[in-house]
Amino acid sequence: MRWLYAxxxxxxxxxxxxxxxxxxxAGDASGPSTAPKQPISFDLSAIDKxxxxxxxFYQYACGNWMRDNPIPADKVRWGLFDELAQRNRYLLYLDLxxxxxxxxxxxxxxxxxxxxxxxxxxxxxxxxxxxxxxxxAQIAALTGKTQLAAFNLEADRDxxxxxxxxxxxxxxxxxxxxxxxxxxxxxLTLPDRDYYLNDDDRSKKIREQYLAxxxxxxxxxxxxxEAAAREASDVMRIETALARGSQSRVEMRDPANxxxxxxxxxxxxxxxxxxxxxxxxGEGLAKVETLNVVSPGYVKTVNAILQTESLDAVKHYMRWHxxxxxxxxxxxxxxxxNFNFFQATLNGQQEQTPRWERCxxxxxxxxxxxxxxxxxxxNFPPTAKANVNKLVTALDTALAxxxxxxxxxxxxxxxxxxxxxxxxxxxxGYPDHWRDYxxxxxxxxxxxxxxxxADQFETHRNLAKLGKPVDKSEWGMTPPTVNAYYxxxxxxxNFPAGILxxxxxxxxxxxxxxxxxxxxxxxxxxxxxxxxxxAKFDLHGNVHNWFTEDDLAKFNxxxxxxxxxxxxxxxxxxxxxxxxxxxxxxxxxxxxxRIAFRALEETLAREGAAAEPGYSDGKRDGYTPEQRxxxxxxxxxxxxxxxxxxxxxxxxxxxxxxxxxVKGAVQxxxxxxxxxxxxxxxxMMPVNTCQVW
Length: 693
Ligand SMILES: [Zn+2]
Known about the structure:
The chain is of the alpha+beta class. The chain is about 50% helix and about 5% strand. It is built from 26 helices and 12 strands. It has a 4-stranded mixed sheet with strand order 1-8-9-7, with helices on one face. A 4-stranded mixed sheet has the order 3-4-6-5. Strands 2-12 form a two-stranded antiparallel ribbon.
């Protein structure tokens, strides 16, 4: 997968995702020396009682944890959330190691071989750049730009993905029951188009370092220093042009900006120098008459590149992307140079992530629903599924009541919002039907080929959806993943087994803590159906306005309040959050915190003492249920992050950093101030607050 931006599936994730690169590389071939600790729900020892919760609640809930848990040298971020991910990864690693040594089923043989091939450092070093030689030879043999469509097709079908142009299948925004073809923007290497375009000193410096990195990588391919420098400057020029022709992340959040249905003839007219017909025919898409062009400006930009750049320059660009995509799996020198720029320079990581972690991630990425089948048997009991289902129902009821009680929305729009909530489906733990990987060939002596074939498998699986009914039972995350998502075009919320563990969910703790942790996550995903992006979709998953004009104006005013507020939050010197990029996530955090609180209050009222196990005189560990609720919310975001990684996150990630997820949401919710007896005007109980839901 060489593509930067995914198709606009409108998946809204709960957490930022892995900071490490997904594929595997050089490094220590041994496993972990000790088992990572099991995170606990509600960690009293994490609390900094010298801090005032009304002044800085994040410091109060997490201060001692942050002091006692410095970031490991091989990580760019370390928090309670990462502790759970590490624990899940370790348990998965044990399965993979066993499957690699003595598989008991055909599926275990497959994922065991994938993992074993990835772990084989000696093999990687012996192969050097050999695994990518066939593709590089094909690029070298190109003699004219008219051959590019044919080569691109081969790259997409036989290697690791297409260059400059690719196609995929996604739900039609206007009729979500249909799956249509789309072509999107991409083709960059740095984390965002702004890295190529911004004029500040830090961005300029990163560009210089990137250019040096590309040059070094070409030198590792035995190009002379002069040739390598020339090739690197070709790469930089082409990627900069692509960046200029791309939409920003904020623009891409608006469905109106990513939907442009064109006929194939119109597409050909806007990029006449690329043989679309040959490309689409080769993909088996000869009968397609129309497609969605996500970014029309991008298509024109690529065409301009094909017109103005020399064939050699385009070949250097493609050669770079082959090398870059495979680098983590190649021999030590390539993997190390790749680490030095992307992890160390860009994100501040000090040491390479251990190989067992990278190979576990890579196997989970490639064969997640194969490894997940065994993982959930051991780590996700059926009782957990039933209990979480009850929590989701409690949140569902609370959001329905919240909508009814909204002071700013008319009854007319409320009826629509209620209908959308009623239509929202839920998936918990893992799929009912597991993906069939029988078409994916895995070889124990071919790690790069395995990664390529896994990518091809996904490409074919995606293209095969064209024209077929939508399968809403399909999952977009693997079972051990510590995350959750809302699928906007399918109107469903999804919670993998990986997040349904302490500190998020614990069947041995009081409900206040579960509501504050997993309850807020559930409310967060539900609220995504009603954030500035999700609210543009109706109960069928179609982009269609269901607000009255007046209510829409009020909604926009309220979301603007949140956007402006979060734009004022700083994550590193001179680096603030982008309130427009993070608007959906922040709205979901704020809504989730309110809704889960309401669900908790209802549970306490209904169940009385039964909902307060371990309490005496209304307190447990010295805290009321409401205080425990907010502390549990704050603690799932306890963590430390390297300054460089925080800067990358602020520029590219729709999620705010942990500190602001906590402080931003509690300071907008007066119930927090009440729970901790704060005074209006203190930082965590300001006079002016923002509220949407
Ligand atoms: Zn989210």
